[in-house]
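Cell division protein FtsL, pasting as requested.
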Amino acid sequence: MRSLLFVLSAMGLIGLAFWAYRENYETKAAITEAVNMQDDIAAARARLSMLRAEWAYLNRPDRLRALAEANFGPLGLQPLDAAQFGVVAQVRFPPAETLRVINRSVEVSSLNQHADAGQ
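Structure tokens follow.
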């Protein structure tokens, strides 16, 4: 009886050791993946800050004004005027959807039909 208990204990110990070994390597793989993701996030943030800086540089008011003046004739641009803006009341919005009203009775259960058919 004792030898069976020792064998079962040894098998349990080997099983737990195998489980701990596997969990250790899965944990190391998860940590490596998390570090790689953090590196990717840092690179994406750096690219985003670079793109924001480029966008701010390209949208400088003096640069846009110079481009508009240089291309005023070829593009057929018109100077902004207050008369070009309208009032919100002049905008046509789509009509609001209205729900249809049901005036007739609606049968919601077929139990009454089966009972009536049996009589």
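Note for the archive: The CA atoms of residues 20 and 26 lie 10 Å apart.
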